[in-house]
Amino acid sequence: MDALDVNNISVGYSNDLIIKDLSVSMPKHKITTIVGPNGCGKSTLLKTIVRVLQAKEGAVFLEGKAIHTLDTKEVAKRMAILPQTAQAPSGLTVFELVSYGRFPHRKRMGRLSKQDYEYIHWALDVTGLNDLRDQPANALSGGQRQRVWIAMALAQGTDILVLDEPTTYLDLAHQLDILLLLQRLNKEEGRTIIMVLHDLNHASRFSDYMIAMRDGAIVTEGAPNEVMTCDYLRRVFQIDAELISCPYSANPVCLSYQLCEHSVGCKVR
Amino acid sequence: MTNKQWKTKSQLKKERQVKLTALIIFILISVCFFISLNTGHIRLSPQETLMTLFGQGTEQQSLILFDFRLPRMVIAILVGMGLAVSGAVLQGVVRNPLAEPGIIGINAGAGLAVMLFISFFATVSDAPVFAMPMIAFIGAGGVALLIYILSYKRHEGISPIRLVLTGIAIAAGIDALMIVLTLRLDPDNYQFLATWIAGSIWGSNWKFVLALLPWLLVFLPFIYSKSSVLNILTLGDETAIGLGAHMERERRILLILAVIVAAACVSVSGGIGFVGLIAPHLTRRLVGDKHEYIIPISAMVGGLLLLVADTLGRWMMQPSEIPAGIIVAVIGAPYFLYLLAKTKD
Amino acid sequence: MEWSKEQMDEKEQLKKVKDTARPTVGILILTVGTLLLIFSLALSISLGAADIDFKTVWGTIFHFNPDLVDHQIIWELRIPRVIGAAIVGSCFAVSGALMQGMTRNPLADSGLLGLNAGAAFMLALCFAFFPGLPYSYVIVFSFLGAALGAGIVYGVGSLSENGLTPIRLVLAGAAVSALLGALSEGIALYFEIGQDLAFWYAGGVSGTTWGQLKVVTPWLCLALIGAIALSRSITILSLGEEVAIGLGERMGRVKLLSAVLILILAGAAVSVVGAVSFVGLIVPHLARRLVGHDYRWIIPASAMLGALLVVLADLTARIINPPYETPIGALIALLGVPFFLYLARKGGGHV
Asked: For B214-266, what is each residue's pLDDT tens digit?
């Protein structure tokens, strides 16, 4: 079974649909990445999957069950999300913020249980935040803060992690740092990871499955070597690229690229 | 207090810190309480006050103490608590540190209702005593509802900024409307109304204490039980949804709670603003951003604040009194401006 | 606005402003507006607690006879009041237009930004401590008060890290108004001058006298002329500071001059009619709709429309519920509140 199935959804306002009649599936225990140019609807798709936006028509199925029929707390026990613009109130420590991830598991008024503490400490460990746990979250650097949010999502203890551009605003090393962490979570713990990425090469290198979108529809989907081809890149991004094989993952990555109108053609080395 | 072994050192330290803060504020309130008992038109020495408290005073002394000062002080503390908690809830829900009950029209609505009410009676004393807080309560709730409806947009729900702007506009409109009505009032009613609007804690007898207390006893604990939801709401819509909060529903419930508590308070105290703004802010300075701490501590801070304001108002220009609301505004507005200059969005 | 400053070359932006400007509409508004204004002035003079026909009005103006009661009513009460209304309307509207242009803030208005509250506070002080102060001094206090209110609001706004956003200004305005309002209330309660102040607050032009007009008018004429002289620079300022600097505008001087003009306009207007909000909010928006984004047209058009609005509001206020007068402040708020809500709902928008 797939982790998530999207069946014929349309999203947007009645006369202005951003996504129209779209269907796609995201495999379990894999890293799935959605790519596409600005305004192609990839964030909209992601927000619909995590029920921030409501589909006008169609439905999203979480492990076979329509997500809007499930109790939102139940969904939160199975799927965690990390929005693009997550903001913490200024007076929270890292530990406090990560502990909020236990919200769906807590009863009203309940204090944190032993299990809650185990999850929180584990999440801090995995993300390497143990030394920073008593710092105010807002005083951390961009890369560290992103780790805090990931730790909070991990503390939620879900099989599925959904991330909206987790590497935006980070420098090169920190981008890689976050992606390697996600890869480790996938490989070692079998977590399903679904994310939107802007950087094509990162998407290709780290994902098992790619979905390419344009104008609110899916152009192609499949393994990176099926999606990262001259033809599709041209159709999705209107670029001609020089593709080489990534030395770390053997997936295709762009060496450089040019807009189609100025280009001398596509190359695969 | 289970799970002690799981808590980090700094967490335990923080809990101690919060308890200490609570203790200090409690002591401050007690001190102010005692000072306030001695303050007023007729002076009582600390000794006389103590004597009277233990039933040893003259008849006049116990009348002043038990029938005038004490209920008024209790009301001041209760109202301060209620407004502060209401403000803390609003700031969390609206996710704007500048929100306070006045912004969602509580004061304007209550003021308008009271004004309409007394304009039906020749003099204030003709009006039934308990009708006044009821009317004020309804007015406050009604205007809050109006503002909520006006700032609601389909597909988007309530945007904090729209809520704030709508609140300001409606309050401005009500102000203009009230001026029309003011002109027709006879001078006695006018004087009463002006003092009411200025936040004079007019309902100062034990009946009003009893009228206000149940509301707070029911709703403040309920709000406290929603602390973890408030925590989640401050993280933003998407994160909150991701964590499984019923966003719109919880937001609505909390807004309603905040309105009820604030309206109940204003209905006995008159138009008092800024307590709901300052108290939660000071509290956050003291204990950080977790609502499990913010709610109880800001209640205490609010109580202290209004008690001090009321005492100052009685003391500053004796024999005449300055309404507590004016004192609070004079302290609160500059603080608000300072916050405004400091916050980023 | 469909274009943003990042996407467009500065010169192109200016051109766009010029293209969207509609001088013909502007001229039309000014001519038709003048006619309408004269008409409504005449109407307003003749209607009232005692109706007086146009002929007598005409007679009063051109062959004044101090022995006739009608002539006296018209000369001593109606005419100053109506002229006062027109002048005050222009002032509030132009000060609003200047503020909106200068701060690029669609919600700017002298009432919402603390100017009126400041002027009112100073007047409360005057009432309490110097009752019977001559009007020419009162008006100076009023200027000072407006400056006080505005100074605090803008001071707070400019101290903050992200500068003056529309929201921040409105919030600061609300807080400053609350503060000054509370102080005025305290003074009023202590000196028991509350209802006197309320009458004045309520915003009525009914008490306008020739004496007041004589003091106020020169200020206003100067300020209006100044505003029109500055209008080209305001247009450039309204495109954003970076663009303005790029186009070689001397920002500091223009801002200082417009600030002074705003204070004079709002302070004087408040000293005549009391705190009337929303005129400065509604009118410039309307003018912009009609004549485009060029302040050379917006400012005169605002002056005209503002005068019309307040004269008509005053007229309505008198005939709604005679013999009582409904305060015009309330009437205008009745229009202003929904309009403000509409702007807020639209998302603030741009200027």
From this structure: 889 999 999 999 998 999 888 888 888 888 888 888 888 998 899 889 988 88
Task: Quote the ipTM score.
Answer: 0.83
| Alpha-carbon distance C322 to nearest alpha carbon in chain B (angstroms) | 14
B228 in contact with A, Cβ within 8 Å = yes
Distance separating alpha carbons of residues B53 and B207, to the nearest angstrom:
20
The DSSP annotation for B218-280 comes to HHHHHHHHTHHHHHHHTT-HHHHHHTT--HHHHHHHHHHHHHHHHHHHHHHH-S--SHHHHHH
Let me know: does C243 contact C62? Beta carbons within 8 Å. no
What is the Cα–Cα distance from A36 to B208, expressed in whole angstroms? 64
- Whether A101 and B244 lie within 8 Å, measured CB to CB: no
Report which secondary-structure segment, H or E, holds C81. helix C79-103
Whole-prediction pTM value? 0.81
* Calpha distance B127→B117 (Å, rounded): 8
3-class SS shares of chain B: helix, strand, coil, % to 5: 75, 0, 20
pLDDT below 70 — which residues of chain A? Answer: 13-14, 108-110
Total of domains in chain C = 1
CB contact under 8 A, A112 and B232: no
Q: Is the pLDDT of residue C348 over 50?
A: no
Q: Does B237 touch chain A (CB under 8 A)?
A: yes
- Measured between CA atoms, the residue of chain B closest to residue A117 is B6
Tell me the mean pLDDT in the region B117-123.
71
For residues B225 and B291, the answer to whether their CB atoms sit within 8 Å is: no
C4 belongs to a structural domain = no
Cα B300 to the center of its chain, rounded Å: 11
List, in order, residues 6 or more apart from A237 with CB less than 8 Å away.
A36, A37, A200
In a domain, C22, yes or no: yes
Residue to substitute from B155, B241, B246, B282, interface A, most A β-carbons within 10 A:
B241
Q: Are B195 and B130 in contact (CB under 8 A)?
A: no
Q: Is B4 on the interface with A (CB under 8 A)?
A: no
Question: What are phi and psi for residue B91, nearest 5 degrees?
Answer: -60, -35
For the domain A4-227, what is the CATH code? 3.40.50.300
Q: Do residue B172 and residue C168 have CB atoms under 8 angstroms apart?
A: no
Interchain proximity B241–A50, CB inside 8 Å: yes
Residue B34 belongs to a domain: no
C327 cis-preceded (ω within 30 degrees of 0): no
The domain total for chain B is 1
Domain limits for position C237: 10-346
Which of B195, B329, B340 has the CB atom closest to C156's CB atom? Answer: B340
A247 reaches B (C-beta below 8 A): no
C121-135 pLDDT per residue, tens: 888 888 888 877 777
Question: Distance (Å, rounded) from C-alpha C178 to C-alpha B118?
Answer: 24
A77 in B contact zone (CB under 8 Å): yes
